[in-house]
Structures
1.
Amino acid sequence: MKHKDIADEILELSDREFLGGNNFLVSAVMILRRQKKELADENFRLKAQLDHLQNHNAALVNVSADRLLGKMN
């Protein structure tokens, strides 16, 4: 999320007091906490995807090496 989007969301929520806080800073902190959790979840998902791709790449390298060795023998 871009900084402008965050600022717009904070202003919108502070106007409506959507998060239950009657204070601009309370709303901002609550938004930032939610975004921190979302980013941590995305980070975990991306790390899992990276591990999967690294394993897949290693398997392809092994297959390629086996084929190359087979052609040499």
2.
Amino acid sequence: MATGQRPVQDPGPRGSGKEQGPQNLGEGQRRAQTEFVLMCVVEKGTKTPERGYGGFAGLTDTGLQENLLILSALGLLGLLLHGLPVVRHLGVLTPMGVCPLARIPLLRDNFTGPLHPWAQPEVLTCTCWGAPIIWDGTFDPDMTQQEAVQNLTIGLTVFAVRRYLVKYLACFLETAEQHFMVGQCVVYYVFTEGPAAVPRVRLGPDRRLRVARVVRERRWQDVSMVRMRALHAALGGWLGRCEARFVLCVDVDQHFSEAFGSEALAESVAQLLAWHYRWRRRLLPFERDARSAAALGPGEGDFYYHAAVFGGSMAALRQLTAYCARGLRRDRTRGLEARWHDESHLSKSFWLHKPAKLLSPEFCWSHDVGRRAEILRPQLLWAPKEYALLRG
């Protein structure tokens, strides 16, 4: 059930993805978006990509000034013609930085073979700790298929509760059968309070579906946050004893649209959020309430990670879910609730325990973000949000 400051204040339930559409911008979001543009226009960024979204990496002073002038002019024009909502689309003009040449020969793993980070020169293709950021074109799909471990079983967990079960689960499973880890052994783990309502989907060879019952929660916020606790309990019990060696945890209100293969696997995997992947770090919506276990202070945090997709080995996932569940429990005993719930704790955990691989926004994309030249082949697409219908 799987998402922060997104286009609106209210994040929405997990099971779902908490993202809101751009049509209901609140005043706080408008101010934040205005600040984002002003920061892009007036702030001179670092010339190294070592600090995540430090921005402007590799630009000369002249090139920097020219880019800032262009951005300023476009920002003012956009405000005049379309008002503040257009500001959210100006992130496309913010440079992401480049992967240091010294690290390029080191980018390889057991699931993709050699990586080619220079194939996407306009985006960041590695992190300062040496983890690859997987974009279309940076890996060879044929080589990836060859590198895939034979007889490897991959788990895919999805939480489908309340009306999300009826609205989204069938499409999620049907498109997963078409695109998710084709040729691999796959086990779908569906967590729901209504096992009898799980749709019957025709599964291919070596693909199975298991259903686990969860308790129905009263508030949608609790639906969102209980996932970490339920996953941790399952990983320490029946799920940990199952056949899957690697598990991806994905929100149900999405559908697979292109091949989603073993290039997405690693010891620990994090997903960049489509709305914020070009934003500078100081503008990323980390939890800022110092009382919360999810809090990140100024200068802390690497990227803003989307809780709609994360995964890894059984051991890594158990560590991750334990950290998040513990933080959520601590906040609750203090009467606190992180602004973006389990996602805030996820970003904190991945800052402390760096992921081995990052997935580009292509792996979890929303057309509401707008057209982006670097988004070539979205593998997973968000469904339209229908909160009035689904939360009733």
